[in-house]
Amino acid sequence: MLQLSLLSSPRVDPKPITGKERPEDLLASAFPAFVGRQVRTGFELMRRCQQEGHTVFMTLSGAMTPAGLHRSSIIPLIQSGAVDVLTTTGANLYHDAHRVIGHAIREIDPLAGDTALRDARIIRIYDLGFDEDVLLDTDKLFSRLLMKPAFQKPMTTAEMNWLLGREIAALEVELGVTEPCLLSACYHADVPIFVGAPQDGSIFLNVVKLKALLGDQFKFLLDPVADVYTMAALQWAAQREGETAVWIMGGGVPKNYTLQGEPTLSQILGQDARGFDVDLQICVDPVDNGALSSCPAGEGHTWGKVSAECVATSSIYMHADVTAVLPWLVYALFSSTEPRPLKRLYQRLPEMVAQLDQDVEAQRETLMADLT
Fold this sequence. Notes:
The protein is an alpha/beta fold. It has a single domain (32-360), classed as Deoxyhypusine synthase (Deoxyhypusine Synthase). Helix content is 53%, strand content 12%. It is built from 18 helices and eleven strands. The chain has helices at residues 2-7, 23-30, 34-52, 69-79, 90-100, 114-119, 132-146, 157-175, 182-189, 202-214, 224-241, 252-259, 261-268, 297-302, 308-313, 322-336, 349-362, 364-369, and strands at residues 55-60, 85-88, 106-107, 122-125, 128-131, 154-155, 193-195, 221-222, 244-249, 278-283, 315-319.
């Protein structure tokens, strides 16, 4: 049996690189093993999602926007219709705004000495640096935006980020900024942005300041119940309309916040949710320390987060740094597929929530019985 199985498996027989290969051909022939094979499989899954019209939920952790990964890779994916929903950290949205208001993030020596950097009022994110004034100016920007009338009500993080995107898109026009930031790019494409831990970031620190200064005059409020329910409703609608995929860049809260929509549907709200159909992740974390950031699709399946078919045929864990791998994958994807129409899911959120309301109501008797 082992011999028959081995003989039917592809041979490891890469061809010499000439410099004339298309990126997808190079991935097919020169990435036969180890992390290289993981990258090849990841590309194949991304291409399948693009070609077959999966609804793609991307998660983005870490300090990706200071590193510029959004400009090289994430925003092009959004504008091409490859990514339909984004879950990220508040930090990625906050630090992206530095460039909008004219500040620069620069390469620095990570071994320069943090005491000396602090004395010079230079903020460090590994090998990136910027003046402390950059933070202060960005705080002023978000404080002024959050004081506007549109924000003076309870809302989800998706609504907050859509409104912030609208305001910053107008500011970019006013300032002559030609490259959109992540918030404004998602606003233009109606891609919902969720933030699973909004209080863990500088945008929310400005909410704290405004509440302390203005008291009851400041009526902005994030509704975490509506936020989780809206994510679940979005996933419920998407999987009823076709196949869904999760592309996980890093790990952390964005990963779990997106994946937990499925057990929210199946285990909490009594719906027959199947889980994501495709799961791919790029992350440097080891998988054997119990951390959720690194857990594979199989472990996620035990929670109902991804389907059994996904575990068997449509998942990959690429053990690599996102910044080293994603630009190459995006280049290969764009070289081999055509853009697809934008799904503009933000505009459909009210109808999706209403549909889940209806389906939960149909399970009311069973769900209420669980409470007694």
